[in-house]
Each structure stands twice: as structure tokens, then as C-alpha cells.
Amino acid sequence: MKKGDIVTYRLKNKNVLCEIININNYNEYTLKGLQYRFIKTCTIKDIHPIDLNNSDSLDCKAGSRINDKINCILNARSINENHKSCFLDTVLHLDSDMQYLNLCLQSYEDLGINAMGIYLPIHEQPSKIFKLLQKYDPAIIVITGHDSFIEGSDELDLDNYENSHYFIESVKKAREFQKCKDDLIIIAGACQSCYEKIIEAGANYASSPKRILVHALDPSFIVEKIIFSSINYYLSPLDAVETTNFGLDGYGGIETRGRKRISLPSVFNT
Asked: Sign (positive/negative) of CA torsion 20, 24, 28, 30?
């Protein structure tokens, strides 16, 4: 097997699709999840090639399931309200994976959300986030990329995580910019990230309470809940993660005020 090959890897009792992104001099393989936000280093015995012509191997149904989810969200929204009379806030999404960033930006567009996406390597996010917040002044910021956790180790020891310390430092910098957790809503983390310490740093929502995989588009579904909930309403953590793929196992957080404001009479073109 070589760099760029698509393989399967067993993680959390689940066979997941990965790309080989590096092979070092010790024949250790670094894998990046294709549908889930994780990075893993393993040996060749832990990975298996797949048949690219086999649609079952590639889990081609995954895309249609996400489309079904988005359609359900839009249908539920249209039943209750006409959002043409709403003021909707801007989202800033920082991602260390360009492929996942593009997927999320398409999801935001499909969901009717005004989002600005910036590709930024994970190690650069803490040093650059403050200036980006000054420049764009978003209501919601998503800070994500990839992460992983050494199974069976101390969950509160950051040395056991691939990238959680970067998320924590980014959240701290963002919270220095705006201390009020309703004026700047922060969503941070990736697969198996250190949920407790990201929340302690000042995030509203973070992954992953059960150290499980989280889907690439889960942050966009949390954003949708916040954006289209009334400013008069405080979302419970369960409300906020309702449309994510794994609920409170994948993301947790704190009560957070919605961001939608109604204009009456409407000042928007209908």
C-alpha cells in the first residue's frame, strides 16, 4: 500500500474509510478519516485495502443519508416559519482539512446559512484566530480539523491526544476576544477530542464526550440549530446536538441562546 490509497481501519468497533497520508521510515501508516474527523498512526496489520469498484465498501449511501438529513431539517423549518423576515448572523468556520471545509461550506449553503470558511493548519489556528475574529466579527465560530485519542489512557491528559491542545488554545484566544458566551458562540474539536478541557477553555459546544468519531458535517448541524432558534430561547445541549449523527456522545456543551431575530413588518424582499 502507498500514500494516497483508500483503506479501512477498525476504530470504536466500526470499520471506517481512511486515506493513507504518510508512511514513515518505520513503516508506520498515518491515516486520515474520509467521513470522520480523525488522524491515526498504525501498522499495516491494522489496515485493509478496499475494492474501489465496490459501492458497499465505499459506503455510497452515506452521502444520500446526509442529503436526507438536510432535507428533513429544511422541511421541518418551512412548516413552522417564513425565514425571509429573519435577521441571520454570520458564521466563521476554521478547518485544518480543506476537503471537510468544502463539505461544510456546501452544507451551510444548503441550510441557508451565511458562512465564511478559512483553511488553516491546526498548529496555526491559536496564533491567528484573534485577528480573524477582529476582521470578520462573526456571531459563531467553528474551530475544527482532526484529532485522535490513545484508547484506554487517561482522558484528561492532553498528551494522549493528537491535537486537542490546539483546540483548547484556540478557544482560549477566541474567548479573550469576546467573553460573553452568547455574543460569540464557539464550537470546537474533532474526533475523540478532550471535551472537558475544551469546554473549560470557554467553548459553548465541543467534541467528544465519549471519545467517539464525529461526522465531518456535525458542526454545521449544530450551527443550524443555533442560527434558526429565536434569540428569546435558550437551547439545551440536547436541543443543539439533536440533528448531529451521534447526539450527546459526539458533542456536548452548555445552554446557549439562539441567534434568530424576527423583523415585523418585514424589511426583506419576499
From this structure: negative
- Closest to 164 in 3D by CA, of 144, 187, 181, 140: 144
Q: At 32, give phi and psi (nearest 5°).
A: -120, 130
Phi/psi region, residue 85 (left: phi>0; alpha: psi -120 to 50; beta: rest), is alpha
Q: So what's the pLDDT on residue 60?
A: 45
Q: How many residues does the chain have?
A: 270
Listing DSSP states for 101-113 in one string gives HHHHHHHHHHTT-
Q: Which residues pair with 87 in a beta bridge?
A: 261
pLDDT given for residue 87 in this prediction: 62
Side-chain half-sphere exposure of 56, counting CA atoms within 13 A = 0
Considering only residues 142 and 85, tell me which one the structure prediction assigns the higher pLDDT.
Answer: 142
Give me the residue label for grid cell 416559519.
81
For 64-109, write each residue's pLDDT tens digit: 567 777 777 777 766 455 555 556 678 999 999 998 999 999 999 9
Q: Starting at the earlier edge strand, list the strands of the sheet with 47-49.
A: 39-42, 29-33, 14-23, 6-11, 47-49
pTM: 0.83
What confidence tier does 33 reach under pLDDT thresholds 50, 70, 90? confident
Of residues 49 and 223, more confidence is placed in: 223
Write out the DSSP string of 34-64: SSB-BEEEE-GGGEEE--TT-HHHHTTHHHH
Nearest to 83 by CA among 241, 207, 236, 266: 266
Angle between helices 61-80 and 98-110 (to 10 degrees): 30
Are 105 and 218 contacting, i.e. CB atoms less than 8 angstroms apart?
Answer: no
Q: Between vectors from CA 22 to CA 58 and to CA 25, what angle results, nearest 5°?
A: 135
All residues at 6 or more sequence positions from 254 whose CB lies less than 8 Å from its CB, including other chains? 181, 199, 204, 205, 237
